[in-house]
Design brief:
alpha/beta; FAD/NAD(P)-binding domain; Enolase-like, domain 1; 3 domains; 7-stranded mixed β-sheet; 5-stranded parallel β-sheet; 22 strands; about 25% strand; globular
Length: about 475
């Protein structure tokens, strides 16, 4: 038997952050990963997709330069292999960095598929190149961090060419001329935005009555306006009835919110209807752990992210809401679990203060409660919405957008901040601190924001709520 203090199953963001922090606290750690450390985020999600979205932003910038600023520039073509090579180099360098960090920290990384054999015991079957089976015992605990995979439609299994998931779209051999995106959450919106920037005809279909339905209603409204302005057809309250596979694409029937049935032909149908936890190969029952009907592993103690079986903890995409299924939330969960296993003091994750970002064009970024959520929880609220174009830098960018602040009535604490527009993914950090530290509008209004900047709109929104409005009418 191989013995360690902590065994982490899964080397994604939640798993490797747990391993690194536990090792830093003096624990002996074994990290089991059947593929590559870094997980979905590094290899099939956050990093490669945001690299591609940066390339899309450059293409959009050339169009803006020509159409708005008189810079006579055009995009002759997109060299897809060159774009992919740059994206893959960024991923590879990050991967090497994670591997080196784990090695330097003294984390033992074991390649193979892990299966629980008890609350503190794990069997690892090696890959084809190392087919041996090894047994491991954890003195302090086991951490489940096996992540998630794209949800698929039983009637339309992905073939990697005509019907694809977000994973497939990353590794496509070429750019499509047209895309039907099914699902208007963050992933669907980002891929719709990317493909439109690359010149594709894009139709986005969402069953809910608005895209990014978990965000504030005003965020959805402004984002929809921005996507439509770019030429993306957005169908909300709509459902895919069926789809026929063609030699060179798909022909789908979509029922619109008005009850009309429309035919949509596209070279590619991208299914972005969520993700599902990966637990089927873990043999949870062997450790006495159960998953709910959706496959999530629900903690018995959210303050420790510990299951009903003492010593078995869970992080990342295996967690149900209020966890967010976001890489940066997984980092926080990994820190919490590692510190818990080491016997160190650690505050539970405050999910309300974790920012949520959609990296489309325009971007969205939010933290805290939406206006509807705040009212549903019984808060009397003051709300201020300020267009980004109300400040000079917003006019310069010319993409519209807004800042929305939701606060307790009468100058009470800030409950939520919601942004839409260019670069708001970089602007949300200030609001994260405002919400996380229970600040009030008057607290923020005392601090001067640089002029002219986009963040100035955030400061102006708080100034108005604090009764000191300057530029906002």
């Amino acid at each position: 038997m191989n013995t360690a203090d902590v065994i982490v199953i899964g080397g994604g963001t939640g798993g490797y952050s747990t391993a690194l922090r536990a090792a830093a606290l003096g624990l002996r750690v074994v990290l089991v990963e059947r593929d590559k450390v870094g997980g979905t985020c590094l290899h099939r999600g956050c990093i490669p997709s945001k690299a591609m979205l940066h390339a899309a932003e450059l293409v959009d910038g050339i169009a803006e330069a020509r159409e708005r600023w008189g810079v006579k520039a055009t995009v002759d073509a997109v060299d897809w292999p060159a774009l992919v090579a740059t994206r893959d180099d960024i991923v590879a360098r990050n991967h090497r960095g994670v591997e080196a960090h784990l090695a330097h920290a003294g984390v033992r990384v074991v390649r193979g598929s892990a299966r629980l054999t008890g609350p503190r015991s794990v069997r690892v079957a090696g890959p084809d190149s190392d087919p041996g089976v090894r047994e491991f015992i954890a003195r302090r605990g086991v951490v489940l961090a096996t992540g998630s995979r794209p949800r698929t439609l039983p009637a339309l299994p992905p073939d990697g060419r005509r019907v694809v998931t977000s994973d497939d779209a990353l590794f496509a051999p070429a750019l499509p001329a047209s895309v039907l995106v099914l699902g208007g959450g963050a992933i669907g919106v980002e891929y719709a935005s990317f493909h439109r920037s690359m010149g594709a005809r894009v139709t986005l279909v969402e069953a809910a009555d608005r895209i990014v339905p978990l965000e504030d209603a005003d965020v959805s409204r402004h984002l929809t306006r921005g996507l439509k302005k770019r030429g993306i057809e957005v169908q909300t309250g709509a459902r895919l009835l069926d789809a026929e596979l063609l030699d060179d694409g798909v022909r789908a029937r979509v029922r619109t919110a008005r009850g009309e049935v429309r035919a949509v032909e596209a070279e590619r149908l991208l299914v972005a209807v969520g993700r599902v936890p990966v637990t089927e190969d873990l043999d949870l029952a062997a450790a006495g752990v159960t998953a709910d009907e959706r496959g999530f592993v629900v903690p018995a103690d959210w303050n420790r992210l510990e299951t009903a079986v003492p010593g078995v903890h869970v992080v990342g995409d295996l967690l149900p809401p209020p966890s967010l299924g976001l890489a940066h939330a997984s980092f926080a969960e990994g820190l919490l679990v590692a510190e818990t296993l080491a016997g160190a003091a650690s505050a539970p994750v405050d999910y309300a203060a974790v920012p949520r970002v959609t990296y489309s064009s325009p971007q969205t970024a939010s933290v805290g409660l939406s206006e509807a959520e705040a009212r549903a929880r019984g808060h009397e609220v003051d709300v201020n919405t300020m267009p980004l174009t109300a400040v000079a830098k917003g006019m310069v960018h010319g993409q519209g957008g807004m800042v929305k602040v939701v606060a307790e009535a009468g100058g009470g604490r800030v409950l939520g901040v919601h942004l839409v527009g260019p670069h708001v993914s970089e602007m949300i950090a200030e609001s994260q601190l405002v919400v996380g530290w229970d600040a009030e509008p008057g607290d923020v209004a005392r601090h001067v924001h640089a002029h002219p900047t986009l963040s100035e709109a955030v400061g102006e929104a708080f100034l108005t709520l604090a009764g000191r409005g300057l530029h906002q009418q």
